[in-house]
Amino acid sequence: MGVAFKQAELFEVNEIAVTVLDNMANLPLATRPDAPLEEKIELAIEGMMQLMREGRHALVLSSMGKDSSVLCTLALWAIHRAIAQGINVPHVLFGFADTEYDNPIVNRYAKRELKKLSEYIQRHNLPAEVIVATPTLSNDNLVNIMGGRGTASMPGMDRSCSIQLKVSVGNRMKKIAKKRIKGEVVNVVGKRWEESSYRKANMVAAGERPDMTTMINGQPLLSPIAHFTTDDLWGFIAMVRNSEKLPPEQAYANYSDFAAMLDVYRDANGGECELVAFTNTKKNATGCSARTGCLHCSQVADDRSMENMLVEYPQLRSLFNIRNWIGAMHFDPKRRRWLSREPNADGELSIEPNAYSPNTCRELMRYYLSAQADEEIRAHKAGEEPLFDVIPERKLIAIQLLWLRHGYHEPWAALRDWKAVYEEGERWYPPVDMPIASRKDFPRPKKVRFPLTVFTGADPAHLHSAAQMATGACTGSTDDSSASVPLNDEGEFSVDQEGAECFIGFIAGEAIAKADKHPPLPSDQLRTLLNMGTVKLRNGQAGYWEKVMTISDTLVKHDVPAIIDNPVKLLQVTEGAA
User: Which residues are within 8 A (CB) of 222 and not within 5 positions of it... i.e. 6 or more apart?
Assistant: First the structure.
């Protein structure tokens, strides 16, 4: 491995706090940026093999990008070598966090690569498997945006989308891993020091290195390719690809030839990517700036990667237009809900801009429904699978539920729009080249309390629950006994996909017809979904749902949703109450 050297020889001291230098003391020579690639590979493999010698399970976290694809290959090589040396290899898990909103081309590529990885593991009878985790509906970022529970994450603002779609899914996957296997599970990640100065400082402070584990948030973690440069990554990929020209016994065994990955980078970069040229042994290749995100990503001002992909995949144009529409309208105060969703201790709401307005939420949902319906028709004619399915039936029901919770729209509005698109051929498309609302024009008024007593006449701290029956936790009592009906709930809020399909296909039409004659309150609609078993609420949430549905019913009874995007009229109601 060469002579060990100290952290200060690898990193500039002023890049990190002096107090953490000992975390990275005595790094192997192979971690130097200019160390031979072969030595860097050996160090990465040895780091993972040490876990196996110690009887520790590895959860190899991968997105199937260039970094994690190299990591997966090295993990497989470590398993092969450990078996050859007679080591009893603990079960290895390869984990993939499927946000369900990744760029459709990238998502399709990743799932195909995961299939190759799984088939490779089975073919070689390795002690490993692939596991996939997705967001819960409560953490589904786009459902929350369309449902009026949040807004898009804009450049320079908090990355709540990443917390919901990446961090929460990663944590969920770790829980799956711990349930699947016994013993300690070490998270193995493809993070690298060279990615950015910010990442390097954090990794060094946490003691992340390729040859030993560190503890982060109470969980052991190993970063086998922390010392790899970008040139190392592409050199490794070129080495594996070019070895295919060699006799089988000399070629590098791998689950993939990386051709599909290079195609994705090429398309995202708008043509002949220099990284692709690098893997074909072209010298002096430059870097590639192509980065892909979620199909609705607004964290970047311009999504160049998706725009570049439109040349090869024009069917993504509808998603690209929706994404641009979100960015353009985000700071328009007329597109915000001006009434808080949660009351204070006195049962009062605040007048201040928060989530998108009911009409904006509905516009967004209609745009996505129209886009996916068009894509289904295109794919059917082409004899292929649709590239994206943004709002399947279970997510539509979840959006409908959030609209009930907030008192949005006429009864069963989301179901009406679904039927309009899929049964009546209705379409909605966002305006193109819409003027971008300026952030400076977005007002930030002081909070003004909005008293529900204006409508109820009740003590706000003791509002009678108008929706007491809505959650199914109905309690009745006599002089000497009481009886309760159990809540339709489970460990987390969920919508059954088959149940949602049945409800939309066979029940929604009748429910809409009845609603047209006798409009039900939001709590009545929620009760219908619960009684049909389509929706299950989270354990212990009965009191919460009774509270929010009481507010929703109250607002609907008095037509407040009609002015919920108008702070002037809301203030007039408040002044009238005074």
Answer: 47, 48, 51, 58, 186, 187, 188, 189, 210, 212, 213, 214
